[in-house]
Amino acid sequence: MITHLLNHGTKPTDVQQLADHSSLATTMKYFNTRKASQDAATSNLPEL
Length: 48
Hints:
By secondary structure, this protein is mainly alpha-helical. The protein is built from 4 helices and no strands.
């Protein structure tokens, strides 16, 4: 759930509160930057 929310644009601080993490760094460990980059790149492709 955390990864999904972060990868779909939910503010990290909102996710942190939802997950009840005391540290934002803990929440950000779930953020998949590779997936986010891939989504951004493929959104520029025409539908095949």
